[in-house]
Amino acid sequence: MTSEERELTKDKSAIQTQQSVEEVFEYIIRTDLDYINKWAPVAFSGKDTEGVHQMRVGLRRMRSALTLFTPAIPRKNTKKLAGEMRWAARQLDRARDLDVYIADNLSSKKATKDKQTKKLRNVALRHRQKEYKKVRGFLRGQRFRAFNDKLIRWLNKKGWRQGLSKAEKNDLSCEITYFANLVLDDHRCKVLGTGRDIRRMDDEDLHRLRIECKKLRYATEFFAPLYGTKMTAFSKKLKQLQDVLGVLHDCYVMGGLQSSLLKGKRSKKLVVVANNLMHQRNKSASDLREVLIGTWENYRTAKLPWLD
After folding, report:
1. pLDDT digits (tens, 9 = 90+) for 99-137
2. Alpha-carbon separation of residue 30 from 19, 62, 69, 85 (angstroms)
3. Domain 18-95+115-174: which CATH class?
4. Where do the structural domains in the chain lie, given as residue ranges?
5. For a Cys staple, 305 with which of 133, 227, 241, 294, CB 3.0–4.6 Å?
6. What is the rounded distance in angstroms from the CA atom of residue 161 to the CA atom of residue 206?
């Protein structure tokens, strides 16, 4: 990653306690829209996998912000934009899955150890090349440009105010801290509710828990400046939980991804290599299940900075 790209990942949050709910909401959306557009040229080039990854992060952060601010801004006023954000992120999903698959299983050092692993790597790289061609088409496309233009107009005209009552508009002018306390507590409860039977959860259940953790994680990032260092320990434990869930999800995705890579391939040796990789990842996932329980307990009992 270049120094310029590293600069793009830095948090430049300007949120302060005296700001209103509306000011913070607008700031988050504008900041993340700027973020995805700064990373778009990196994603377009395909030379650095961070481009696609960081664009997806920016899009997910914006979608999460729309959800997190629903108590103040009705979903009906953000539904269409949320749909376009979801669509945009999906255009990047396959490329990102392949980036992760290659990096985790077929890095150049691993791939040079035997002929069949190298062949599988080359198959994956060809699929990745096709996906990045689609990414470039998406970024050049009219729909993505229209999404950008529409979101900018919506921000400039404060489109989230459409149809709000006088009382609802007054609520938007309230200071952010009380609102943040409610949002953080509400979404922590959602995470706890989703993961209450964590020992019995299957892959799809864990994926839903991962999504709820992401929403809460973004909330902690958005509102962290309001709590100073009090948020650090809680965020660390939440990140540890999210990281374990992320690895388990990658294992879950890997099976379907490898099936698509091997479609039409007649080489039994290639299938054996892929099956061995899958076996290794399944074993890692099984071991991680035990790690997950401890990580969950650490998160569940973490001190809550917004109640301190």
Report:
1. 999 998 888 676 667 888 889 999 999 999 999 999 999
2. 16, 9, 15, 14
3. mainly alpha
4. 18-95+115-174, 197-303
5. 227
6. 36
